[in-house]
Design brief:
Helices cover 35% and strands 15% of the residues. The protein has 241 residues and is an alpha/beta fold. The chain has 2 domains: 14-105 and 225-232, Rossmann fold (3-Layer(aba) Sandwich), CATH 3.40.50; 106-219, Rossmann fold. Helix 7 (172-189) packs parallel to helix 8. The chain starts with 13 loop residues before the first strand and ends in a 9-residue tail after the last helix. 44% of the residues are buried.
Amino acid sequence: MISASGATPGRAAVGIIMLDTVFPRILGDIGNAETFSFPVRYRVVRGASPQRVVREADVRLLEPFIEAARSLEREGVRAIATSCGFLAIFQRELADAVQIPVLSSSLLQVPLAHAMINRGQKVGILTASARSLTDRHLAGVGIRDIALVVMGMEDAEEFTGAFIEGKATLDSGKVRKEMVAAARRLADDHPEVGALVLECTNMPPYARAVQEVLKIPVFDVVTLVRHVHASLERQAFGEIP
């Protein structure tokens, strides 16, 4: 979990800007440090509720997020991620505010997913709210011209109650069932989907269950952070003669 100091032990290569939330951060969630096999450093933007970020796309939050990014950069992290895929809307501004890579959203993986599948297939996006995911978000990460299938979790009671509406408790088993039901709808309604990106950073704990239904590549913020961390902390393969 996030420590009182906002950091996990050891030198952190990746900083994570967090929304201001109260629900439990279970293993697999970006806000649980044990999700990662390497140290991470957290910074919470106070007042940045899921309501303001997801449903309202409140542009007044840009400056606090920029300050959080710059603060993490000053503390020595070498890349920055965020705890909400809807911050894709600020990707360019956040990246331009610092001198290190910024990963505003798991949706940055959509071009990779699109390039690796058959041209007759589409990339699926499972999002916290399809109603709130606009062209501005897609444009923010450069994916407006990619063939997409977008499905939202707006009607999932437990998922929305905890992750969007601010409920302090979490029935993880119920969320898992809601995620599996969404995956089944996606499989039934859109067999043309060849890869899936989970927009919401609270979805990775259920990625395996989703993949068991769809049987396709499933990307999320954890795969993104791990990928970029591997580029920052390259494995040594022994001395080269």
